[in-house]
Amino acid sequence: MYSASAIDKATEFCFLLCHETSYNYKYSIRVPVTESNPHHCDPIIPLLLAMTIIPSKMMASTMLSLVSAALPLQENHKGKMNLGSSDCSSFLRKEKRNPFMKTKSFGRINMAIAVNTSRFEGVTMAPPDPILGVSEAFRADNSEMKLNLGVGAYRTEELQPYVLNVVKKAENLMLERGENKEYLPIEGLAAFNKVTAELLFGAGNPVIEQQRVATVQGLSGTGSLRLAAALIERYFPGAKVLISSPTWGNHKNIFNDARVPWSEYRYYDPKTVGLDFDGMISDIKAAPEGSFVLLHGCAHNPTGIDPTPEQWEKIADVIQEKNHIPFFDVAYQGFASGSLDADASSVRLFAARGMELLVAQSYSKNLGLYAERIGAINVVCSSADAAARVKSQLKRIARPMYSNPPIHGARIVANVVGDPALFNEWKEEMELMAGRIKNVRQKLFDSLSAKDKCGKDWSFILKQIGMFSFTGLSKVQSENMTNKWHVYMTKDGRISLAGLSLAKCEYLADAIIDSFHCVS
Ligand code: KET
């Protein structure tokens, strides 16, 4: 039973509601009313409409019961339904604190209303990603001359994406075997973890024999770096990661998101267009003892400049002296020299010294498995026992992040690397890919040298290795490359030679010369 005044108020409430359908009455009705869909309403609305058409007190009484019954339990309090009462206004006062709610007074009745303001109003627009955002801009360009040299992804001479033959063969094997899609263990596919560590350290390496490597399959290089960053954050609180200047654009994001402090060490010297080796050594020396030193295992991104074997030895010396922990990012094994073993020599040199180290691996580039997200994090420890504990913690980090990794890419790698015939075929294909990049590098250099009337020395392009060339073009010059020449590249002056064809070298040379000499 409800009092007469309550029924009066309910009648008025329903009447007002029907005239204010663009508001969302807090108590009983959550109506997402938008401009394009102004009449979308809760099932309770028709009842309320009926209520205004036949505004009898009996109907209001029935309505009140219905509304009461329809309310979720926690909202179905007599006090709250006591419209216009002090209980209600105290509730409304609470609502006022919510920045997305506004209250409105209709004479005797206060209504809590949600205006058409998003709960995500405070979310600002993120800038496009400096690397992957370039591909988005490229897709939107209709020019026939356009060239995507932004992302490091291998293309054929026809500038088409390339699926390696060994990958197709490995996929066929998977189909023939009728393999299932059950969840993988958190650490990933055992066969993958075995071959990936062997590919990196070399089968028979003592670190593997002595079970001192904790290997966990990751979501490609990025995901593997992120797992390691989380491990650092948990077990080395306050430890710094030293990052080369410049570096791959995502490194800083990864450590920022993992709340791991980082600082930069000198790496690139624009004057010599080479390695600032002395600067690098002194910055590593100056860092607090026990820092992590992030090193590009081969084919440094974006500079394409790697230390010589002698320089690697000296880097290892100073890291050991300072009790730092080397942390390798190996995203281009096989792409720097064309040889998988040669490209892992930096990592193996550190492992052979008995140092503890971390290595993130990626199969995006060398097996062309970009979208399969396959890679691994390897932590070399001084004992098998420590490795087992580290592995258990990596799994603990992975479980709430993504539970367990995808199986498809892991099987491809396991099939290719684990099968001697496919493994050899892969090496041949990789040499072909690396060879094509070397050819365009040479042709670009030739074209630049022939066309540049100012006689600039472009030979640094030939000294750089891997997928990229660091052109030395400034931000505005890089923008000119895109705006005037439709050449898409990152704003740090990096071009991906893997996205260039011999046929486009002359055009690219024209664009570079124009941007370099005519834009400042
Ligand atoms: N490390 C380095 C040095 C690197 O260049 C990349 C990718 C990665 C790790 C990670 O790749 P993943 O696909 O997560 O295994 N670099 C290219 C693509 C990208 O930016 O994501 C690039 O620089 O174009």
From TrEMBL:
Gene3D superfamilies the UniProt entry points to: Aspartate Aminotransferase, domain 1, Type I PLP-dependent aspartate aminotransferase-like (Major domain)
Reactions catalysed, as given in the entry: L-aspartate + 2-oxoglutarate = oxaloacetate + L-glutamate
UniProt superkingdom: Eukaryota
EC nos: 2.6.1.1
GO molecular function: L-aspartate:2-oxoglutarate aminotransferase activity; pyridoxal phosphate binding
InterPro entries xrefs: Aminotransferase_I/II_large (IPR004839), Asp_trans (IPR000796), NHTrfase_class1_PyrdxlP-BS (IPR004838), PyrdxlP-dep_Trfase (IPR015424), PyrdxlP-dep_Trfase_major (IPR015421), PyrdxlP-dep_Trfase_small (IPR015422)
Alphabetical GO biological process terms: amino acid metabolic process
Pfam families in the record: Aminotran_1_2
Alphabetically ordered keywords of this record: Aminotransferase, Pyridoxal phosphate, Transferase
Enzyme kind, highest EC tier: transferase
Family: Belongs to the class-I pyridoxal-phosphate-dependent aminotransferase family.
More details: In eukaryotes there are cytoplasmic, mitochondrial and chloroplastic isozymes.
Protein name: Aspartate aminotransferase
Organism lineage string: Eukaryota, Viridiplantae, Streptophyta, Embryophyta, Tracheophyta
